[in-house]
Amino acid sequence: MKEFKKYLKKLKKQPVLVVSHESPDGDAIGSSIGMGFLLKELGFEPLVINKDLVPEKYSFLENNIKIKKLDDLNQNEKLEKYLVFVMDSGKLDRIGFVLEDIFPKYVGIINIDHHISNDFFGIKNFVYPKMAATSEIVGSLFLDLIGYIPSEAATAIYTGVMTDTGNLTYESTTSATVALVSILHEMNADFNSMRKFVYENESIGQIAGVRAILNNLDYLMDGYIAYTYLNYEDILANNLTAGDIENYVDYPRKVSTSEVAILFKEFTKDEIRISIRTKSKIDANKMAAGFGGGGHKRAAGFRIKKPLNEAIKFALNKIVEGLKNNEWNN
Amino acid sequence: MKEFKKYLKKLKKQPVLVVSHESPDGDAIGSSIGMGFLLKELGFEPLVINKDLVPEKYSFLENNIKIKKLDDLNQNEKLEKYLVFVMDSGKLDRIGFVLEDIFPKYVGIINIDHHISNDFFGIKNFVYPKMAATSEIVGSLFLDLIGYIPSEAATAIYTGVMTDTGNLTYESTTSATVALVSILHEMNADFNSMRKFVYENESIGQIAGVRAILNNLDYLMDGYIAYTYLNYEDILANNLTAGDIENYVDYPRKVSTSEVAILFKEFTKDEIRISIRTKSKIDANKMAAGFGGGGHKRAAGFRIKKPLNEAIKFALNKIVEGLKNNEWNN
């Protein structure tokens, strides 16, 4: 963190771009907006973007800092000589587009992340796997460099930390994470709005989505694996976005017997997105890597280009075999 | 809090009993065990009891301090001249039995609670409605009086605070609450066991219970009221206890439109238990008081001695009318 602080302090004024991964979750949004505020405090005029629209439940975070959709950028914005801050992305392709194609004059990438699977794609790589969220990195930097956090930035960082740690209950949480959240409270992070917009904002469709994944819930290896799926029809009928579904994997995870919880998501008919959560014995990041994906020890993901039922069969077979061979033990 | 500290410091050695409310939740268990440890550190030999058995998901908290079931006490234990610490109970009848009947020689009640509805039934009443949990009161006392918290006590207090605040997201949470949790982390509260036993410990039956309340979910006043119920048959078939069900009211609460979330629980055919949660405009404690119950501004409960469908009709009619007459506004 010291190196990162020194780097930011010495950074000469220039156009800066902040981008996070596509289908942004709370930590992608929170760390992007938080970093936007931090760069502003340091005298920059950051452009904050994402390939995708900010999910409605996180839109309350967009006040002084907006996250522009890639498609909505104008030609001038694309032609700046940006230094690009890539947030919360283990691999560069997670941003969902090729930087060169959209920003032909960008000068370099600053890689800011907490995923242990990060492959160091930047000219500078500030990767801290001990941080529970990329937003925690931004919060710590803010306090160290500026000494306070403006309320709006605090709300964004709070949202990122809470959503990425299961409200401070996941193994990744440290006493430093909780201490930061306590400071964010003192900095007037709007935790009531966060709860209301992020956690108490389910539509009838989202409730129907939960009902579907509970109905599809099944078990393997005496419940050691608990898995479920959401098919294309249910996603479409209930108007579900990636953001709506991101925490549904918590349901198979909650089952007492399950060490490995899996959610298959059929957003498109030809590519299935899979979320994995593990509890204590199996390394989810290693498991996902076996399928070309990545993430953390307890939470990871990958994709399979097959129809849903084939993807389920293929993944579960490989996972059962891998577990039996102790391939992904911690 | 100063008065409470002074009181505990000056308390002469005598038999002490710690009891909390029947159907104990995380805060009842956490504050009882926490208080047990604190009294031990202060040189007492507390007897910690409850009318009911500790729910299985909280049993990991019982190591050096066990919570005895009322029925399992022997005659000697009943005949001591106890000073009785009543934890987390707004009214004395919440403990589920008459103190005089079981402990004929008890000398007085110390009432320790954070419910705003508390009716000051003790010879001393240490009631702090600004505390997010009774366990938070115990944690603060521990730090002030002893300066540290033994790991096991920290785990119990952590469990009480987290379960009573929706993992630090409810309106009742203050930066002091979060700061205490950060200290509990440093005191080696076993947050991984808490998550595993309390949050990741659902049985197939509990999952079926959630499915049932999602199927029974309905709305009134354009979704301003979201309510659901669990009937006797579903409770029985899925082997559900009060502890299993305590957070099911979070599902109607999560619906974006709902200000008032209600869960009807048919544990017995002749008495329905009702949980209310409100978000920002309606005082749940005032609403519950209209039915002879109580609790907090955002979370309260009451009971109705009618068959389930009659209780639902009766309560909803009265609630709709009360809301239309602005009877329970904050």
Order of helices and strands of chain A: HEHEEHEHEEHHHHHEEHHHEEHEEH
Secondary structure class of chain A reads alpha/beta
Q: Would you state the CATH class of the largest domain in chain A?
A: Alpha Beta
Instruction: Choose one word for the global shape of chain A.
Output: globular
Task: Explain what you see.
Two copies of one chain form a homodimer. Chain A is α/β, with parallel strands linked by helices. The first copy, chain A, folds into two domains: 2-199, inorganic pyrophosphatase (n-terminal core) (Alpha-Beta Complex); 204-324, Roll (Diaminopimelate Epimerase, Chain A, domain 1), CATH 3.10.310.30. Chain A has helices at 2-10, 26-41, 75-78, 99-102, 134-145, 151-164, 175-186, 191-199, 204-215, 232-237, 242-245, 250-254, 284-289, 308-324, and strands spanning 16-20, 47-50, 68-69, 83-87, 108-113, 124-127, 218-220, 225-230, 260-268, 271-278, 294-295, 299-304. In chain A, strand 9 and strand 10 form a beta hairpin. In chain A, helix 2 packs antiparallel against helix 6. Chain A is globular. Chain A starts with a helix and ends in a 6-residue tail after the last helix. Chain A binds chain B through residues 162, 166-171, 173-175, 178-179, 181-183, 185-186, 191-192, 194-196, 199-204, 207, 210-211, 214-215, 217, 251, 253-256, 258, 279-280, and chain B through 162, 166-171, 173-175, 178-179, 181-183, 185-186, 191-192, 194-196, 199-204, 207, 210-211, 214-215, 217, 251, 253-256, 258, 279-280.
